[in-house]
Amino acid sequence: MQDFNTLNNPKFLYRAEMHHPFPDWVTREPMPEAAEFEQKASAAFADTKRRLLPICTKSAAFHSALNVFAHLDDYDDAALERVKSACAYYGIEQDILPYAELFASEFEKSASLDELTEGRYAIDDEFGGEVFKLLPLNDAVDVRDSSFELSKMAAENRIMLPMFVAAAREIVKAAHDHNVSHELPDLIMRHGVERFPDAEEAARRIQGRSQFCKDATIREQVEADYQAALVDLENEPDAAMEKIAAIDFVAGVSNSYRHSSLVPTPFDIVFCGALASDAEKAAKEHVLVRDVLLPLQEVRAIDAMDAEYRLSKSAADTFRRLRDTGDARDLSLAVEQWSESDQKTLLRLTVAAAA
């Protein structure tokens, strides 16, 4: 721990003097040095325990005040109060005021910057103890440039598939935020737009993949590993993709990002289901009743009196409250809690209303 009289290069003093010229009485005297205070009692310092911030002379109090204002985090409240008291004792409170305001402003600015994000990146991760921040996404220009750079990295096999997919997803999100989704390369849209897994289709696509294994003696084991990777596909699709990619590495199976490639990438194997956006749209526009999707508009067409008369009181109350919802999922969740009789009644009423 150091203070102004033990520092070789007290930069805060230079900042202070550039902000506001020191008083004449300060400039006429040499800056206090550590040797002057070596024999002083602890009471001669504002920080009595560490014997820092000397305040036993007018000049020392002035310089210690600048030091404590510039480094508030380094000293406790007691030291700050002792410095203030010393300045009051020597009558230099007005002399130190400009510097107190300077460093208070810098402290607040620093605190506010700490609360800000350091920036948005497509790749922001840690590997081997080193943090990687690549492909900035802070504005529309960043998003466009980073999307093409990521596409190039993939085409040149300069990035592993799991990292590429994660980065593509971040770019797609940022593109949506900056309204430039229509400007992204097809490769980024293909891997960055969220899709659901499809276990049945994935099993079909992975068939025969082991034949591309360069070592014929391990093909049987590789085939078993591929099948094992798909076991929990529905619940852990990203994990399944990473497992297939790892098996590919061991087997020497090379991937191409071209759609026409004979060997689909682990991503194309796993995420081969419906677009999440399409599924969400369908869920918002259809009421799910006993595994049947009913168009929301047809459900709304049910005669209100028929619903009141044919449904139970609790179901009728719920239907009356939610029939005009803009998101069918609200009604689907409510209907899921109805009795089987009410659910079947809603199906019949919807068919009749649509006839």
Describe the structure.
The protein has 355 residues and is mainly alpha-helical. It has 4 domains: 105 residues, no CATH class; 72 residues, no CATH class; 72 residues; 79 residues, no CATH class. A hairpin with a 2-residue loop joins strand 5 and strand 6. 56% of the residues lie in helices and 8% in strands. The strands form 3 sheets. A two-stranded antiparallel sheet has the order 1-2. The protein has a two-stranded antiparallel sheet with strand order 3-4. The protein has 18 helices and 6 strands. The chain starts with 10 loop residues before the first helix and ends with a helix. About 1% of the residues have low confidence.
How are the secondary structure elements laid out?
Elements: H1 11-19, H2 24-27, E1 45-47, E2 52-54, H3 58-70, H4 77-90, H5 93-115, E3 121-127, E4 130-136, H6 140-155, H7 161-177, H8 186-192, H9 199-206, H10 219-229, H11 237-251, H12 266-270, H13 276-285, E5 286-289, E6 292-295, H14 296-300, H15 304-310, H16 313-322, H17 328-336, H18 340-354
Antiparallel strand pairs: 1-2, 3-4, 5-6
Helix pairs in contact: 3-4, 3-5, 6-7, 7-8, 10-11, 15-16, 16-17
